[in-house]
Design brief:
8 helices; Carboh/pur_kinase_PfkB_CS; UDP-N-acetylmuramoyl-L-alanine:D-glutamate ligase; nine-stranded mixed β-sheet; alpha/beta; transferase; globular; 9 strands; binds pyridoxal-5'-phosphate; phosphomethylpyrimidine kinase activity; 260 residues; nucleotide-binding
Length: 260
């Protein structure tokens, strides 16, 4: 029987189609993985910005996870925009119940989405503590420098990684894409071994959805059985190609591409 690899994203919808669960599903498809979703919030969004957020009731988010896991049996899960503390708490309970994340059998990628590239909030300010608590379940947590500053108070990549591991994450991937200089360098560490992942910085305004795409690519490869360092290395190469194939659509920041 021809059963595809299945992955799940727990994330918000971007009506503009560039980021959020839409980017995740494009990425899963590019890796040949069947993508499933638990929607946390519907954003009213285009390439210019976010003008509204409708949060899904926490129980409905948890029910989507239970429904998908009970039937389609994803072999990796990622989280993106989680919107509020009650949603994060419902998700954490569902993850523990269904063996998702540390202590379970299904690897978990936590992309700690806090705001869009335009600065529109995608997480309530009072939900930071709940998001930090979720890191204890993460196989890997993938902040950019702005998220690292907000969550652990530093933009220094080794210091931020240490703080994320202290919160219970198995691996930290602190991304350097929001820095400056000709190279985009990400630090991956499990506290014992560290890997610097280096790529050329591609100057473009069209990077909408790049963070989601990286985390989804990691999840897609973990779902297929890669080790975490291998999954991250493949995902980093993929997101570099995604940024290289980004395009303009709408009046604002265009999305990354999803090359196969
Ligand atoms: N909208 C949603 C629903 C998202 O999940 C994200 C990022 O995770 C964004 C927007 C922002 O994407 P970007 O910062 O790449 O513009």
């Amino acid at each position: 029987m021809n059963r595809p690899t299945v992955a799940m994203t727990v994330a918000g919808s971007d009506s503009g189609g560039g980021a959020g669960l839409q980017a995740d599903l494009h990425t899963f498809a590019a890796f040949g993985v069947h993508g499933t979703t638990a929607v946390t919030a519907v954003t009213v969004q285009n390439t210019v910005g976010v003008t509204g957020v409708h949060e899904i009731p926490p129980q409905i988010v948890a029910d989507q996870i239970a429904s998908v896991v009970g039937d389609l049996r994803p072999t990796a899960v990622k989280t993106g925009m989680l919107a509020s503390a009650p949603i994060i708490e419902a998700i954490a309970t569902a993850f523990r119940e269904h063996g998702i994340g540390r202590g379970g059998t299904i690897p978990l990628v936590v992309d700690p989405v806090c705001a869009s590239m335009h600065g529109d909030p995608l997480l309530r300010a009072d939900a930071l503590a709940a998001l930090r608590d979720l890191f204890a379940l993460a196989t890997v947590v993938t902040p950019n420098l702005d998220e690292a500053a907000l969550l652990v108070g530093t933009r220094d990549q080794p210091d931020a990684a240490r703080a994320l591991l202290a919160l219970g994450a198995e691996h930290a991937l602190v991304k350097g894409g929001h820095g400056t200089g000709p190279r985009s360098r990400d630090l991956l560490t499990d506290g014992v071994t560290s890997w610097w992942l280096d790529a050329e910085r591609i100057e473009t305004g069209n990077t909408h959805g790049s963070g989601d795409t990286l985390a989804a690519a990691i999840a897609a490869r973990l779902a297929g059985g890669d080790t975490l360092p291998d999954a991250v290395a493949v995902a980093k190469r993929y997101v570099t190609r995604a940024v290289a194939t980004s395009y303009s659509v709408g009046a604002g920041h265009g999305p990354v591409g999803h090359p196969t």
